[in-house]
Amino acid sequence: MLLPAIDSAAAQSKGVESRALVNGTLIQLGQAPLADAVIVIRGDEIAAVGSGDSVDIPEDAQVIDVSGRYVMPGMIDGHVHFFQSGGLYARPDVVDLRNVRPYEEEIAGIKERLPDTFRRYLASGVTSVVDVGGPMWNLDVRAQTDTMTAAPTVVTAGPLISSVEPDEFTVDDKPILRFESPEAAREEVRRQIDAGVDIVKIWYIVRGDGPEAFRPVVDAVIEEAHGRDTRVAVHATQLETAHAAVEAGADILVHSVYDQPVDDAFVRQLVEQDVIYVPTLMVSERYRETFAQTLDLTVAEHRIGQKDVIGSLFDLQVIADSLVPNRIQQMISSRPDIPSDSVAIRNLKAVHDAGVTIAAGTDAGNIGTLHGPSLSREFELMRAAGLTPAEVLATATVGGAALMGQDNLGRIEPGMQADLAIVRGNPLEDLQHAFEVDAVMRRGNLMKIRALVPPTAEAAVQQQLNAYNAHDLDGFMDAYADSVQIYTYPNRLDAEGKEAMREPYAGMFKDSPNLFANVTKRMQQGEFVVDYERVTGLGEDELTVIAMYHVNEDGKIDRVEFVR
Predict the structure, then answer these.
(1) pLDDT of residue 16
(2) Looking at residue 3, what DSSP letter applies?
(3) In angstroms, rounded to a whole number, what is the distance separating the alpha carbons of residues 74 and 29?
(4) Gap between the Cα atoms of 56 and 50, Å rounded
(5) Which residue, 77, 186, 248, 279, has fewest beta-carbon neighbours within 10 Å?
(6) Contact 160, 135 (CB under 8 A)
(7) pLDDT tens-digit readout, 175-205
(8) Contact, 314 vs 92, CB < 8 A?
(9) Beta 437-442 vs 445-448: how paired, if at all?
(10) Closest-CA residue to 304 (of 360, 358, 255, 364)
(11) Which burial class, exposed, middle or buried, applies to 197 when counting CB atoms under 10 A from its CB (0-12, 13-18, 19+)?
(12) pTM
């Protein structure tokens, strides 16, 4: 059986020199899935790969049976920001809620949460990430992950060299620095490279004066970085600005072009100069969904994402109106449909078909874009652009490896770093299977997902609360056991079995667009959680409910009692 074998392997992984994964199906991009595969790992490298009758298993290897599972390369998220939480308070320059949560408090919480954040990436099958800009303490984050087993490999940039500098980042170690002088910008490049950054990042923001005003700084930064053998990534979301960045010698564009369709000349530039293109299709969608309170997370995001961070995205429902900008109050009142960014999606297809190297990235850390499982939504949008599942996976494996500048990642082949994920379904049939991870291996260390992110009673209850407030039936149902029983206290059985819940809750979510539950008090003891809830949006009157939950050992809610 798979699970006991992996539990044992996780416990012994550090002391084992070689191991062999057997009887699984290997997902190797560009090839048909290989059933009954054998993958031999020695230390932190893959030593041999092939069919069961073609690979010799070393006598000293620990043999791990992964029957019924698929083994795929560990994924790479090519655009994250560890200095941002993904919650409502992450970007005070976008929505200033510092009177609700001071920015210094937000940063302290982010730093305290980092070990858990790392584990959420691994639990999502993401074994490497690229942090494309933040405070100089990004280097401390990279150093921390280098010494940890339960963390992804990190490549990082330092503070963004920018044409603007938001005032709202009220900390000494700022993530964004404004430069007007090319020489001052060169000095900053030297400072960052001497400190050890992997990439230099330019925030090329144009506000009415065209890209030429900041172009001398861009030219100076790229020339200085290239003179020190360091690549330059550029935020340039307008076609005119992206043109200018590539003309100046940018190595990486960290977003798709959003404002208009890309032209043939621009696409040729990308191909000829071997520029890597990171689409980040989801990030603007998630800002708008959060501000309209119409958040639409994937099941993987509900299940794997940090529950308190997700919960903060609904704080707009309870923050005093005087503290919420009028534009956001209007969005909440009207709840407009939030379309995906069709221009960015079409542009992805255009550059991909032209042969541009694409690296998947989410911009995780921005409001509504969660650390860990957000690639699950990015993949959906890349599929909407017309990429096949295999092409999408390539952007998060070999494409991500190109972005990281590490040619030993992204494939399961001899000599590659032993980064891989063991998943329950075939991701070439449904990309969401890539996030149904049983175990993950990073640098040869095998870790069971249940050990990385142990199921807890509070996590299950918070997941269903988050999904309830998002009116997300699938995310809501995912928190419940198949055999769940729903009672009205003391002993009236209202529903038995998860499927009996589906229809009434589906109707409630559909017919009550303003439905919202605010937990005013929570108590937990062991596997029991009691929430005191105020529910609005079901009618004119507010409902006060006490909900008593029991959560089983699998982390699923199997009994609920309501006291009304």
Answers:
(1) 65
(2) H
(3) 12
(4) 10
(5) 186
(6) no
(7) 999 999 999 999 999 999 999 999 999 999 9
(8) no
(9) antiparallel
(10) 364
(11) buried
(12) 0.95
